[in-house]
Amino acid sequence: MDPFRFTIQARSGRARVGLLTTPHGRVETPLFMPVGTQGSVKGLLPKDLKAIGSQVLLANTYHLLLRPGPERVQALGGLHRFAGWDGPWLTDSGGFQVMSLGHLRRIDEEGVVFQSHLDGSLIRLTPERSIAIQEALGADFIMAFDECPPYPSSPEYLKASLERTLRWLERSLKAKTRPDQALFGIAQGGTDAGLRALSTRETLRFDLPGYAIGGLAVGETKEEMFPMVALSTEILPEAKPRYLMGVGHPEDLVAAMGLGVDLFDSVYPTRTGRFGSALVPEGRINLKNAQYLEDKRPLEEGCDCYACQTFSRAYIAHLVRAEEMLGGILLSLHNLRFLHRLTERAREAIRQGSYGAFAREFAERRFGKEI
Ligand SMILES: CNc1nc2c(CCNCc3ccccc3)c3nc(N)[nH]c(=O)c3cc2[nH]1
Predict the structure, then answer these.
(1) What does pLDDT average to over the chain?
(2) What pLDDT was estimated at residue 117?
(3) Of the four listed, 128, 153, 305, 341, which is most buried by Cβ atoms within 10 Å?
(4) Which residues pair with 215 in a beta bridge?
(5) How far apart are CA 259 and CA 288, in angstroms?
């Protein structure tokens, strides 16, 4: 039986609820995946991630290659045992981090050469090596080695890059040996509709268990990004999961779920939490702001997370000002719970056939009035 079955349970417009089976349990989509770059979601215990509804965690080939090294993780039982998370893991293929960490030295047909951000040593990543690393790490979902072109890029560069990414996809697939891992292809093409369609169609020529929409959320405007998401989900097959990479603002999740996206990841909720901000239905509140020092209310009325059930905004504002670790920990916990509750409510609305009303209510609270 297929270890990665995906079945659609309900639809509402283009939004859908899916059930995704993995060797480490079944998960319900749409879902948000917390990012654990170095094998840990910063400041949060796996048991607390489970308690707030996290289903799939993300780790990164680039970072784990540099430290502690894939051989060590494999010798210690693979990511699930090593990092104490027995639910599904997804690893990104490392290309994006090389571009975004700005240590890229060269990119050619073979792969990329970059400088380690830890000790400056030169490291080569190729499709074959990326797959070998992801196999050693042992994630359930692994990503093809791709190039995420910088924004903006010329149509000429976008075209040459997406064609190379397709050749790298073929090499990634050929290098794969483990049947218990699902390889996702990543479509590129930037914000050029013709190239986006071309890349998505060519990626589909490979029969894969899921497809990622790459090359977006790299600085383009929402007005440029969302037509590409809509175009992608029109082309991508209904029966396979769609993963929009790097998208994590609440309003963007609501819009993209409405366009039929199933999987999301972003450092936003945990990073903005560490920087002192809480996600709330109206948007975001920054607890560094003095107005919260006497505010007895929870971060968000009605939130069931430990931070909202136990502490006031005043206390968390104090922790943030005092630079106490607990401040960032509580805000990260709340922000992830906020996104998991958002996707839980979205799945419920889809089951009720009322996703449109859900999205409108969300937008009314988010954009209807100032905080
Ligand atoms: C933020 N915007 C954005 N992120 C993108 C990513 C990374 C997704 N996040 C994975 C991650 C895993 C662990 C730790 C940190 C991040 C991409 N990854 C690949 N492979 N290809 C993309 O086109 C691509 C495009 C993106 N845009």
Answers:
(1) 97
(2) 86
(3) 305
(4) none
(5) 35
User: Which residues does 331 contact at the CB level (< 8 Å), separation at least 6?
Assistant: 272, 273, 274, 276, 277, 278, 287, 299, 307, 316, 320
Cα distance between residue 249 and residue 242, in whole Å:
17
Q: Which residue reads 């080939």 in tokens?
A: 61
Run of H or E residues at 143: strand 141-143
Pocket around ligand 1 at a 6 A CB cut-off: 35, 37, 58-60, 92-93, 95-96, 143, 146, 148, 186, 214-218, 245-246, 265, 267
Residue 285 CA to ligand 1 center (angstroms) comes to 26
Residue 33 has pLDDT above 90, yes or no: yes
Query: What is the rounded end-to-end Cα distance, in angstroms, of the chain?
Result: 51
| CA–CA–CA angle 69, 214, 126 (5° rounding) | 40
Instruction: Give the percent of the chain with pLDDT over 90.
Output: 94
Model confidence pTM above 0.95: yes
304 an active-site residue?
no
Strand 15-22 versus strand 25-29 pairing type:
antiparallel
Is 252 strand, coil or helix? helix
The reply to whether ipTM tops 0.95 is yes
How many Å is the Cα radius of gyration of the chain? 20
Q: What is the pLDDT of residue 77?
A: 98
What does the pLDDT look like over 85-99, one tens digit per residue? Answer: 999 999 999 989 877
38 touches 60 (CB < 8 A):
yes
